[in-house]
Design goal:
The chain is mainly alpha-helical. It has 4 helices and no strands. The chain starts with a helix and ends with a helix.
Length: about 90
Amino acid sequence: MTDERTFAVRIAFFNALGTLTALGGATYMDSRLTSHVVYGSREYPLGYWICLASPAVFVLTWVSFAKLKSRYARIIAPGVILGGAGLLS
């Protein structure tokens, strides 16, 4: 039982880390990029606030592993949660 809990926490952590890396990287790097001639630096004023979605992704992934009983649902749920966070951002 503890192996399942540990696995659920690890998957939730990596899902939240992926969200934070994708959103935070784009928000931080695009605002400091000056070498692109056509676009220049682009700023996202709400980007850092959207990065706060990563704890929600962690909790949703962790809860989905705790509540879902089907193996296939557990396989699909983290991808759906991560894709949903990407679409909302």
